[in-house]
Amino acid sequence: EVSCRRLGGGSVQAGDSLRLSCAASGFTFSGYGMGWFRQATGKEREFVAAVTWSGGSTYYSDSVKGRFTISRDNAKNTVYLQMNSLKPEDTAAYYCAAQKGLATSSWLDYDYWGQGTLVTVSS
Fold it and tell me: Pick from 12, 30, 15, 35: which is nearest to 98 by CA?
């Protein structure tokens, strides 16, 4: 099971920051790569960021690189997404996901999904 939580308000202004967290249970968290994806209304799900099982490598989409940071705490079975300099185009439902062994950018590769949390950024 993967449970997502949003730290801070879900509706923010452009330029604000927000932190998402995702707590996992039911599988060996340290053996899974973790990813964040998002889906805006009427659009396809898109890759945001991923982190390898050890936290040693991180990957980002071009649209968030330099603004978002993914991290994980294996002792707490939790993955985080720190989002800075938010833009209206970041508005979407954000999902975390777990993938055994790897951390790819394709949502098809992920085994477990959180329920999603809505982030709204107004201009």
Answer: 35
> Is 116:8 a contact under the CB 8 Å cutoff?
no
Pairing assessment for the beta strands 68-73 and 11-13 based on DSSP bridges: unpaired
- Alpha carbons 33 and 100: distance in angstroms, whole number: 6
The burial class, CB within 10 Å (0-12 / 13-18 / 19+), for 27 is middle
**63, 72 Cβ separation under 8 angstroms:** no
Tracing tokens 């998002």 back to the chain, one arrives at 38
In the chain, the amino acid numbered 2 is: V
Q: What whole-number distance in Å separates Cα of residue 122 and Cα of residue 61?
A: 21
Please write the tens of the pLDDT for every residue from 4-21.
Answer: 665 555 789 999 999 999
